[in-house]
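FAQ: What does the model actually see?

It sees only this:
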Amino acid sequence: MMSIVEFFRNLPKKHCSNCGNVIQEQADCYGNICDDCDHPAR
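And it is asked to produce this:
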């Protein structure tokens, strides 16, 4: 059986649904849009 740490390390990186760039995930982040695409000036 795989350890929980190994499981989370093997998850694929999260990508922005708009531009496709890899999102720098945070512990409490459930969004699927990167900071650049979600910027209020855009």
